[in-house]
Amino acid sequence: MNTDSSSKSPSYTITCRMNHEAAALERLCQVVRIRGFRIEKMAVETADGVLDIALTVQGTRSLTMLQSQLEKLHTVAEVILTTPVLAPAASLTA
Amino acid sequence: MNGAQHILEAFHRHNIQTVFGYPGGCIMPLYDALVDDVRVEHVLCRHEQGCALAADGYARASGRLGVCIATSGPGATNLITGVANAHRDSIPMLVITGQVPSALIGTDAFQETDVLGMTLGIVKHSYLVESADELPGILDGAMKLAQSGRPGPVWIDIPKDVLLTETTIAPITTPAPPPTACPDLTGAIALLRAARKPLLYSGGGISLAHSEDRFREFSECSELPAVVTLKGIGNPGKYSTHNLGMLGMHGSRAANRAVDECDLLLVIGARLDDRATGKLDGFAPNARTIHIDADAAEFNKLRNSELAIRGDLNAILGELTRALRETPLAINDWRKQCQTWRTTGGFQAADNEEPLAPITGPAFIRQLSRVAPDDTIIACDVGQHQMWVAQHYQFDHPRHHLTSGGLGTMGFGLPAAIGAQFADRQSTVLNVTGDGSFMMNAQELATIRRYSLPVKLIIMDNQCLGMVRQQQELFYNNRESQINLDDNPDFVAMARAFDIPALKIERTDQVRRGIETILAYNGPMLLHVAIAREENVWPIVKPGGSNKEMIDETRRSAADKKERVA
To answer: Does the predicted model carry a pTM greater than 0.90?
Structure first.
């Protein structure tokens, strides 16, 4: 991804709770990438078979779309957007 | 019971009687267990991609879970296209692969690949099994997950030592979750009643939710003008008078016109894919949208909806039918308008009256549609023939039309037809393919022969990659690039080499007899149909263009100056 263009993109913070099973983090990161976001910062804590992940992501697409795609993952228990959601991306029709 | 035996036990519990697979080193314990099992029929395809696509065709035709099995390394990587195909079309599938023994994972062992890692993006979920004790629970969960909500492939990668380890854990069958209540439809019914030009837009989600009958009732009761996506073909039935046909890039003028003019889109079991909508800015510009689907992630993904309703389609369609039966919609003017478009803007192709004339694709498919029994299953490949089937064959049920919609996998049709024939040994199954697609999985002719499957193969041979040639002609200044296949093998001789009888036709007066001959033959048979190289699929919307800007044959020279696409 082009650093110049991404540096102008808005940043959001998300917290995500998921089951701690094989490839859980890879799954999460892959969805973030495919749905058009870039991870700026990531903190992971593990307890009792659960992963708590705090993510700062950057991108121009709809954050609610990213949220719904993350929630679709079988391992994900909860996704919370801690940054207020802005207007949908301009590419969406009204 | 060891891990391998647990897999067979899970098959029995979930009533899985047919699986498609190919043996190899790390999956051998499962194949050893299969020797003693008389309840599971294992179908040996000739390439793992054939196994996955056959499992996909089995699932599409039957509505049941498709199962494919392969070994580690190349076995698993060969499955990937077939599994991606199932993922993109939400087909319920269980994939089982052997993996190198646990202690060797990560050592670059013989036939080791990181299957879990490389398949994350093409599965609904996946597991790498770490001990035999967790295998029964994973198997039960995977089979349920693959078939629940929006279906999809679930992949279980099992190290060889886990397959061999004895476990005392009992097989597990968890109860199915209770059905969810029907969501509130007050808002949807109010929007429908307020609309003057409502349009029903249905897709592959109807049959994925097993709601074909409820949909048909709703469609007939509401008398809503209707369009279908490629995967929704067959939803309204062969005899629906309100069906305007497929919309989108190769859709009917009637369907695209109705979408353009409607003031309410009732989208059910569809995801507003780009091949259906064309350029989003120009798609249904005057319409509000009600989107009903099993997958919440599809809502507002590409187009914002006034109302998004997630739930069981059977319950929702039943409730909508009740509401509209009590008070029908007053939209007669709109219905009449759509009827006019249906008459004048449906898929039209003149039947060729000249007996010695070359065969044209659309005329051949129309004749096939007239001659083949109503319950015929057609597995297509990808390309021009796929669109001619979608446009000109009259399907009475969505499970009769097996087509690779999302991924567009050349080579899908032949193994999918094999899977469909295993789903119902009595049904008539045709693979309609092109000369390009046929060669992508031609090795599966051996599978047809081995199991004496009465699959009929129809190769529409235009000696080139027709859909690519067409787009090069229209959008790339007619600069043909790597599409020539005029050195194809002799397909009739090729079929005969697999002990499959075959015949070739090339004139219009041979069409009917050719079709009747293969349909009447009690076994597999191949019909090689020579068609003109220059023929195109009409109408067409330029990739990335708006559906309003359809190009058809008559307008082609005037309207289109063979623009380049980006």
So the answer is: yes
